[in-house]
Amino acid sequence: xxxxxxxxxxxxxxxxxxxxxxxxxxxxxxxxxxxxxxxxxxxxxxxxxxxxxxxxxxxxxxxxxxxxxxxxxxxxxxxxxxxxxxxxxxxxxxxxxxxxxxxxxxxxxxxxxxxxxxxxxxxxxxxxxxxxxxxxxxxxxxxxxxxxxxxxxxxxxxxxxxxxxxxxxxxxxxxxxxxxxxxxxxxxxxxxxxxxxxxxxxxxxxxxxxxxxxxxxxxxxxxxxxxxxxxxxxxxxxxxxxxxxxxxxxxxxxxxxxxxxxxxxxxxxxxxxxxxxxxxxxxxxxxxxxxxxxxxxxxxxxxxxxxxxxxxxxxxxxxxxxxxxxxxxx
Length: 330
Fold this sequence. Notes:
Elements: H1 2-13, E1 19-24, E2 26-39, E3 46-59, H2 60-69, E4 73-81, H3 84-95, E5 99-105, E6 111-118, E7 121-128, H4 136-149, E8 155-159, H5 168-176, E9 180-184, E10 198-199, H6 203-210, H7 219-230, E11 233-237, E12 243-247, E13 250-254, H8 267-280, H9 285-299, H10 310-329
Parallel strand pairs: 1-4, 1-8, 2-6, 4-5, 8-9, 9-10, 10-11
Antiparallel strand pairs: 2-3, 6-7, 11-12, 12-13
Helix pairs in contact: 1-10, 2-8, 8-9, 9-10
């Protein structure tokens, strides 16, 4: 047990050496926070007294933000509009020390999501986006960008939100490059994630992929079915039920490490980016999944699209190990 924990901590301490390319739908997240003290006289709706506004990198860019938080070398590939949101988005990339190879579209806006929050609760969300496919010329440019960018990175993450960037042709191009490809999927009839090294569907995505409900007694059967569809490994992310890894006909259920859940926004980004970073520095798939499980426990205990640090993950491992020792000796 101590040797296994020591290996995890060694890999965590090396996350700053990770080299990860992330391809996917890019978003600008805006959080508006305020207090509700009265109902509007104009309609039966709450009046928000705004106290704070913050912008964060969202979508695939939030996955990149997680790798950057570990000090890793990360680059994102995606599309933005030719607008003010794009300017703000790119300034946040520079601030977070994230490299980028962006396709600037004159036809599409930069995707923006605005969340209104009061007393820790999200009241409503506004989405500004265009979900139609890119043009043929844009798809060709995108594939050229991917080919060039992939030369410098060990692991490729596909963060698919079904906003028009990832189609079957683009995905097949990514897997043809010959590097390990990890996918955060958005299942739909038009795309199959065939030949991905790893897919990481959450509960809802899993049920869409198998067209059935899942339960704790069916995790292995379900993961095996998805593995047969993708010809790769599967990591089911199950919120409070932890994660379930199916790899090479072996199964591992990782119990949730979360003591409290404050906000699950972006937790999937943390899982896939941490798995990718850990694999990049030599961790096995099961070790990478365990590290990601600890990282997810940290981010869900924070508000908004949060990230975890190497020190936070190591401290959580030590805290839980000490707690287990105390329980076993009592």
